[in-house]
Amino acid sequence: MKSMNETHITSELQRICVYCGSGTGRNRAFVQAARNFGRLLAALRIGLVYGGGSLGLMGEIARSVLDHGGHVTGIIPGFLSEREHMLVEAQELIVVDDMHQRKQMMFAKSDAFVALPGGLGTLEEFVEQLTWSQLGRHAKPIVLANIEGFWNPLLVQFENMAAEDFIRPGLDLNLLVVDRVEDIIPTIDRALASTRAADEAQLEAEVAAKF
């Protein structure tokens, strides 16, 4: 059943890549957040792109999308298909050779990226997208879902990197942070609208400069 907020949200997004743990963590709020976000994606007809497993938060969000009539694309390396119990119910299940292929395909198939709580794999995939964005390789929105303050230590570390000039002006992190999964889609849509407005303003300026 849709909440009042869900009935008034629309989005042009087609697919969102979600990075999250193959475990559930100790805080039940993480599981609930994954389920809630899965329901929201399905309600808004936004496809889920994720790592293809059925365990942990990965399984929770994917099953939630499926249970609410949404579309799931799982991308998993062959060597993880048994360890992470590949989710065979996904409408689109792609088995690749290695982690590099997985990450490249997840990037290509997604309009934005979201990190829910997770471990080293979640952190590595999420930070790689931040790095690619920092180097100007893409401009897709990247959202950190800071459920129950899970990512607070990482945010402090980012601040420390900036204070020590390891994150320098001109190489700022294009990072969006939300505390609730209900804020993820509106935050992404505002970021995309802002980017479009900036691009249009730049184009107008370039045209004006020629005449």
Verbal overview:
Helix 3 (about 55-65) links the parallel strand 2 and strand 3 (about 70-75). The model is unreliable at about 1-5 (pLDDT under 50). The protein contains 7 helices and 7 strands, in the order H-E-H-E-H-E-E-H-E-H-E-H-E-H. Helix content is about 45%, strand content about 15%. With about 210 residues, it is an alpha/beta fold. The longest helix is centred in the C-terminal third of the chain and has 27 residues, at about 185-210. The chain has a single domain, classed as 3-Layer(aba) Sandwich (Rossmann fold), CATH 3.40.50. The chain is globular, with a radius of gyration of 18 Å.
Give the tally of β-strands: 7
Helix content: 40-55%
Q: Detail the poorly predicted runs.
A: 1-5
Fraction in beta strands = 5-15%
Strands of the widest sheet, in order across it, are: 4-3-2-1-5-6-7
Named at the architecture level, the CATH assignment is: 3-Layer(aba) Sandwich
CATH third-level topology? Rossmann fold
What multimeric state do the chains show? single chain
Task: Name the helix and strand elements from N-terminus to C-terminus, one letter apiece.
Answer: HEHEHEEHEHEHEH
Figure out the total of helices. 7
Structural class: alpha/beta
The coarse silhouette is: globular
The average pLDDT is 90
